[in-house]
Amino acid sequence: MIRSVAWRNIWRSPLRSGIIIAAISVGMSAGVFTTAFTKGWMNQRLEAGVETEASHIRIQQPKFGENYDLKESIPNSELVVNEISKLDHVNGISPRIVIQSMVASAETGTGVKIIGIDPEKEKTVTNLHSKLSEGKYFEGVKRNPILIGAKLAKKLKVKMRSKVVITVQDASGNITGGAFRVCGIFDITSGMFEETNVFVRKTDLARLLDLESSVSHEILVHLDDTELIDQQSLLLKNKHKNLLVQTWKESMPELGYINEIGNLYIYIFVIIILLALGFGIVNTMLMVILERIKELGMLMAIGMSKARIFGMLMLETVLLTFTGGFTGILIGLAASYATMEKGIDLSSYAAGLEDMGYSSHIYPVIELETLVTIAILVLITGIVASIYPARKALKYNPAEAIRTE
Q1: Which Gene Ontology BP annotations are present (predicted)?
Q2: Across-strand partners of 88?
């Protein structure tokens, strides 16, 4: 009974109710679409960071990351690799040689991280092989092939099959160098990674450094279930206490912060929208009560309890808020689904975004958990916004209220 009366009361002034519902709808649709857009943006950066750069778990000597000393290799790395590859949920493992050194073209040179990999094993831990914008993954060049990033290629002014020279200090402390030829250029929309990392075959780099090909400075591990990363990392830490075992969150903490900051930004944005809408709802309901003082006085005079009047006014506010909020969520979902397949092209800002590691083509992502949270926040806003107008209505004296014109 109260519910049907409250719903009819909302539409006694269709224009006013329609305007406030439209305002709530526009605000919530913007909130939902921005949430989906931000989630997609953050997820793409996270996926690119984990699946292309860090993989799930990294194993090194504890001091290797300090100065990339050639001597800080993993003892018996082949044995370690064999042991880990037999563990449950491990679906990829790749040993690497890693050094910091110089790469130079005929035009210029720069410092980079040189990563020696087994191309086939590397495919099991990263998706680098699928990120080539030019050339083929270690194909087309027989001797000393090298993969470089698009941004580094631009900086060195080199193209496919161009020759570059890597200068290193070998295991004996001698300065030496080797000529490599570009077999592929990768583009992962992370300008910093593209500019500072090159990939060569592990055997080629070991020969240049005068190392055994079995030597490895780090081992990347990929799992078939991302929910088990922490569990498997703890298992490896207990088995290899002399080594530094890190999940991607530990080896690249900035990636973990991206997700946390993204979620925080989303909720702050939605709360600001709801706060603004909440004040609008309070103002609207105060106007409604001022227009209905005489009616409310009559209801109290014929015996309707203050609790029922309070409940009716609260219900009106909640229904008004939820109608607008639900409509806004549906509009936001429709806009998100409409752009989900083809994405949103921000190529005009590509240079700046890629320098920060973000893609310029965003695919919105809708998460049920976030939608439920937004719906709950809308409901809470409606309840909170209804309290003050409803309490104000109860302060009127029935006799005085009836005489109000």
Answers
A1: lipoprotein localization to outer membrane
A2: none
